[in-house]
Each structure stands twice: as structure tokens, then as C-alpha cells.
Amino acid sequence: MLAASTYPLEVVQADRWLKERKSLKGDALKKEVDKQSWDDSIKALASTAECQSAWGPGADRHAKLLIRLAVEGALLDAYSHSAAN
């Protein structure tokens, strides 16, 4: 779950993809998930029903938060590097 959290956009994509394919289960689900271009951590979670439910209805909100934190961190790094020069 922790590794997958570093791919917030893929979490949202996988969540939406799974909602569109609710009938897929077991090996059929794993086979289709493996065809996706997602990171292996996302594929592992997407193949596990228990982890899918952990994403819950807030997947979009969580992804936006992680993206915002990443952008803020990048801006802070850029500022601190420019201030040092």
C-alpha cells in the first residue's frame, strides 16, 4: 500500500478501471490487471479485493492531496536551491 501511494494518479486510474470491470474476479482479474501499464505495486493492489476497498470513495481526494504535497515539496526544493546560489 505504501509503495502504491507514491503513484496517486495510477491509484485513481486503477480504481476507475476496476469499477468499470466489477465482474472480473480471481485469475481473470489478475490477467487483465497484468496487461495494464501501471507500476507493479498498483497491479498487486488492484488484483486484491481487500486492498481495492481500502482505496474507497476517497481515492480521487487522496490522489489530489499526494500530488499537492509533491508539488509543494518540489517548489520548496527549488526555492532552497535558488536561495543558496
Description:
With 85 residues, the protein is mainly α. The protein has one domain. The chain is 73% helix and 0% strand. Helix 1 runs antiparallel to helix 5 (59-84).
Key phrases:
85 residues; mainly alpha; 5 helices; 0% strand; elongated
What's the N-to-C terminus distance? 38 Å
Number of strands: 0
Categorize the overall geometry. Answer: elongated
Q: How many helix segments?
A: 5
What would you call the structural class? mainly alpha
**Whole-number total of structural domains:** 1
Rg on CA atoms, Å: 16 Å
Rounded mean pLDDT is: 76
Helix content: over 70%
Oligomer: single chain
How do the SSEs run, as a string of H and E? Answer: HHHHH
What's the main sheet like?
A: none
Strand percentage lies at under 5%
Uncertain segments: none
Ordered list of secondary-structure elements with their pairings:
Blueprint: H1 8-20, H2 26-34, H3 40-46, H4 49-55, H5 59-84
Helix pairs in contact: 1-5
Summary of the model, kept short:
The protein is an all-alpha fold and 85 residues long. The protein has five helices and no strands.
